[in-house]
């Protein structure tokens, strides 16, 4: 986790000043041997912890995206009016007719506009002879 990564970073900062790099040179040959202590092991552990934290963050982001997609699908299903047209009613969200005008009666005019009448299916703003 991030807390463990920070703790390892501070531990590494405390240990680094006390680590030794010893160099041994022999006089009879020209071979130089260098030995490093656990510094590389601590650095590798810190890198592994950082990679694990990044993988956990990516998994959390993927889970959040999946939850958002599921919520969007649930919201879309909740607004479906269960008939064969593509409208959504303004009154009770259940459209029982098969026209696409968005109201609950069986005529083909949209009664949500001002001046519409559900009884005769006319609109006072329509010209005579035009629908």
From TrEMBL:
<dbReference type="GO" id="GO:0016172">
    <property type="term" value="F:antifreeze activity"/>
</dbReference>
<comment type="similarity">
    <text>Belongs to the type-I AFP family.</text>
</comment>
<feature type="compositionally biased region" description="Acidic residues">
    <location>
        <begin position="79"/>
        <end position="111"/>
    </location>
</feature>
<keyword id="KW-0047">Antifreeze protein</keyword>
<protein>
    <submittedName>
        <fullName>Uncharacterized protein</fullName>
    </submittedName>
</protein>
<dbReference type="InterPro" id="IPR016024">
    <property type="entry name" value="ARM-type_fold"/>
</dbReference>
<feature type="region of interest" description="Disordered">
    <location>
        <begin position="72"/>
        <end position="131"/>
    </location>
</feature>
<dbReference type="InterPro" id="IPR000104">
    <property type="entry name" value="Antifreeze_1"/>
</dbReference>
């Amino acid at each position: 986790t991030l807390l463990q990564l920070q703790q390892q970073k501070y531990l590494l900062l405390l240990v680094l000043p006390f680590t030794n790099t010893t160099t041994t040179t022999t006089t009879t040959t020209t071979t130089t041997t260098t030995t490093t202590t656990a510094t590389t092991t601590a650095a590798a552990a810190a890198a592994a912890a950082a990679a694990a934290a990044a993988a956990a963050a990516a998994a959390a982001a993927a889970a959040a995206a999946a939850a958002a997609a599921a919520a969007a699908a649930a919201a879309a299903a909740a607004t479906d009016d269960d008939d064969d047209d593509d409208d959504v009613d303004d009154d009770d969200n259940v459209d029982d007719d098969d026209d696409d005008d968005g109201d609950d009666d069986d005529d083909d005019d949209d009664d949500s506009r001002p001046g519409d009448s559900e009884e005769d299916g006319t609109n006072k703003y329509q010209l005579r002879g035009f629908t």
